[in-house]
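Lab notes, practical 5.
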Amino acid sequence: MNGTTGQTRHQDRVWSVAEHLDDVLSKIAPLDPIELQLLDAQGCVLVEDITVPVALPPFDNSSMDGYAVRAADTTPATQDAPVSLTVIGDIAAGPGELPAVGPGQAARIMTGAPMPPGADAVVPVEWTDGGAGEGPAAAMRAHSAAPQDAGGEVRVHRPATAGAHIRTRGSDVTEGEPALAAGTVLGPSQIGLLAALGRGTVRVRPRPRVVVLSTGSELVQPGEALGPGQIHDSNSFQLTAAARAAGALAYRVGAVADDAETLRSTLEDQLIRADLLVTSGGVSVGAYDVVKETLTALSAEEGTVEFRKLAMQPGKPQGFGLIGPDRIPLLALPGNPVSSYVSFELFVRPALRTLMGLPDVHRPTLRARITDALASSPQGRRQFLRGSHDADAGTVTPVGGAGSHLIKAMAHANALIVVPEEATEVTADSEVEVVLLG
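Output from the prediction step:
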């Protein structure tokens, strides 16, 4: 990006939270679908309905280590008077010839192995002597140590009913049955199902790539000693973690000093790997608000970023626009830690979930009884306070104060308490709107 003749469409009016969010989402579209290998698709959103190409399991198989038998042969079996059956061989999981089980016969069978013809039940090895000629067996002896157990006789101490311990073909899903619907986020279980169905790849919307950077000459990398007037950079870590928790591939950039040219070159370098850019700090009205200075100077070819005042607390100053040749969305958040995190939850997270193609982009909200009174709230602004929500009690308790620097309170909160614009106080035991954060 170069040139400083452009300018943002600065407006003096105050935007509502809903107006700003609607404007952001109206300019963001879901990412184009791509075909990915299964493990690369974890966390992505499926864009096609998946049907079952072949029944699962694809054949009748044993759910136990034991003996495949004709159930009628085991009917008279008791502990004191076991039934003796002739063992005609082993059936292990995997391909191989299956021996036919006739009257008075049994085939030693392993879990997952296909049922042989003639057999209609499996007797667990614990219900037998395991071919050892003694009492009930705890387990089968290894074939290498006791190859004779694949033949000889086995004594059955308990009867099995027809169909016992058999996983029948299609008992999980049948051929042609819906497996996964478009819009599903692929987690470990969904990946496992796709693999079981024989899918090596799947068509999804990729996880959005998010680049996060903080601005401020006072910021120092965690782990380094602080000098006079310095603080550790927490925003870029907090926002990167939040983006990853929302499902994005997030990249943290080291803190950028309050220098317009440095910020400009950093943004240029990051555009190639970003579907969304998030900055924190430098968006207010100070003489060193470098983000605002830099992005208001974009040329028409470089994009347009608009800085706004929102009727909210914390998070009044916000910036949003599309920059670079590909018009990558950029959300410029305020620098105070709580302001930036609340802004992320309200604006960045919905934008990320829109890029992912998810139908529901918002955090769940509910009504809860507030345990403590809130003495003051700025009229005309929607306030978002940190809270601890107790689902069992249906209550929410304020955590910390309203200050936008109180990062410890944010770390101990699992919800945001919403105080509407017209309210200046909230009495204890009244109902409030609560945004659940996790």
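Observations recorded by the TA: The first helix runs from residue 17 to 26. Helices lie at 17-26, 71-74, 188-196, 235-245, 260-270, 290-295, 337-356, 407-411.
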